Fold this protein.
Amino acid sequence: MRNNKNIFRANRTIEFYIPNPNLIPRFNIDYNIFDLISSFGAAFGGKSDLSKLEEIFGKRNFFFTASGRSALYVILKSLNLPPKSKIGVPLFSCTSIFDAIIKAGHVPTFIDICLDNFTINPDDLNKKTKNLSAIIVIHTFGRPADMDIIKNIAKDIPVIEDCAHSLLSEYKGKLTGTIGDLSFFSFRSRKYISAGEGGMILLNNSSYSESFNREISNLKSYSMLNDIKHSLYTYATSFLYHKPWYGLFAFPIGSLIRNTSNKKIITNFQLNSIRRSDRTVFLKKLESFKQNMELQRNNSNVLLERLSNTSLKLPFENENTKCNYYLFPILCKDKTERDDMCTYLQKAGIDSAKLWSLTPEFAMRFYNYKGDCPESEKCANRILTIPNYYSLNDGNLYHIIYHVTKAAEELT
Ligand SMILES: Cc1ncc(COP(=O)(O)O)c(C=O)c1O
């Protein structure tokens, strides 16, 4: 066990973490030297082969943007809504989505989630739906939301699927992203497919085609130099996100920065089309994605089985759905137990994430959230995601199981 030193300064605790070369990173940023080489090739030209995408999603047009958030911006603009329209969005989400809504000239209306699968709560949506001009549904952590019920409530209101987490997840035999009117995906490094950055849009309702093409044609292109710099940056980030560098440098430094600044960074993202390098790496990684997803599902099933006797609330797969298990969320009893569990695991060499735990607070301070999403607030206080990714070896997986079990016994 390693000890952290706490230094109290002006009511704020600054924690210094003792470097640990064996720390298991919380996310899998998987961008290797072959990805870097492919990205360089793409930066200098060459055509992308979309056949794998067509094999997965069927023959259709695929549109690419610089990020998931810019994809959402394009989608919202192409709906041609009056300024300041209310857009329904789950409160338990990434604040970049709220930024995209605001940048498109609209106002987020926060909808609560269901605590058992982290996705939009149909009852709350039903209560708030009459004022909404569009609804964003997030398949959070890869868990498909109940699209039939949501579409039924939405009626004529356009439904946008946020598939940033849910590549290849399925709802009633259909891939997420093919069910709502429009959908988007994200390829940012921390996401499942780790292609650097980028977004993809699927247009499932042709009535938006004209305005959609207009918005897509407004996107600017990145320069070749930007492409190359970005690929190098992504490679360096991925390198630092692996043992031993993660525990030696990236985690201690990252934690220090996070602890000394709890400011919300309002993201002013660029409205560009995707970099050629990111698109090429995404398409290359798609070739092995299904295989990796099955490995990650296997790891998740091992965690589910081995942690089933603990007091922790574990995720489950809803009937008629297939979850890609992008992340493995556990719910603790309360905030104290969650925070203690996070510290306990970190000392045992396991990094975990309190994902979106600050979103309700930021939403109240910056996005006019009025406190009407109690389940989302509970979730933000109680959630911890633990490593489950495909590149974990058996030793790592059993180390995680052993220490999560022990933490649950000692802390609950
Ligand atoms: C659920 C969700 N949607 C959208 C986004 C935005 O995607 P991007 O980072 O590619 O802009 C994120 C996070 O980054 C996300 O977690």
